[in-house]
C-alpha cells in the first residue's frame, strides 16, 4: 500500500534574489512518486498572468497509476487557477 500523501505533493516557494527563499507552501496534496494503482501528480509548471500575481498551476495527473496503457486509467494535464499573495 502507498503512504497517505500528507506531506507529498506540489510545493512552491518565492525569492526576490534567487538565494533567500520563502518557506515552501503545499499547493497540491498528492503522491508525487508512483505507486502502482494509486493517484499521482507530478511535473508542475506555474504560468503567471501579466500581473505576476495570478495564473495557472498545470501538472500531470492520473487517478490510478499503471504501467500498462491498455485498459488503464489515462494520464492527463490538470490546471488550477491560483492567486499569489505578496509577502510583507
Give the overall average pLDDT. Answer: 83
Based on DSSP secondary structure assignment, what is the total number of beta strands?
5
Count of discrete alpha- or pi-helical segments spanning 4 or more residues: 0
β-strand percent reads 35-45%
Which value, in Å, is the CA radius of gyration? 15 Å
Q: N-to-C SSE series? A: EEEEE
- Spans of at least 5 consecutive residues with low confidence: none
- Strand arrangement within the widest β-sheet reads 3-4-5
Distance separating the two termini:
42 Å
What general outline do the C-alpha atoms trace?
Answer: elongated
Largest sheet entry: 3 strands, antiparallel
Structural class: mainly beta
The level of helicity is under 10%
Please tag this protein with its features.
single chain; mainly beta; 3-stranded antiparallel β-sheet; two-stranded antiparallel ribbon; 5 strands
Descriptive overview:
By secondary structure, the chain is mainly β. It contains no helices and five strands. The strands form two sheets. The chain has a three-stranded antiparallel beta sheet, with no helix packed on it. The protein has a two-stranded antiparallel ribbon with strand order 1-2. β3 and β4 form a beta hairpin. The chain is elongated and about 45 Å long.
SSE blueprint and pairings:
Blueprint: E1 9-12, E2 25-29, E3 40-48, E4 54-62, E5 76-83
Antiparallel strand pairs: 1-2, 3-4, 4-5
Amino acid at each position: 500500500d502507498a503512504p497517505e500523501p500528507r506531506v507529498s505533493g506540489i510545493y512552491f516557494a518565492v525569492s526576490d534574489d534567487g538565494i533567500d527563499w520563502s518557506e515552501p507552501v503545499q499547493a497540491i496534496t498528492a503522491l508525487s512518486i508512483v505507486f502502482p494503482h494509486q493517484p499521482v501528480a507530478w511535473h508542475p509548471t506555474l504560468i503567471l498572468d501579466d500581473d505576476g500575481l495570478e495564473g495557472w498551476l498545470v501538472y500531470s495527473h492520473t487517478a490510478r497509476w499503471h504501467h500498462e496503457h491498455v485498459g488503464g486509467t489515462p494520464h492527463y494535464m490538470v490546471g488550477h487557477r491560483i492567486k499569489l499573495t505578496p509577502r510583507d
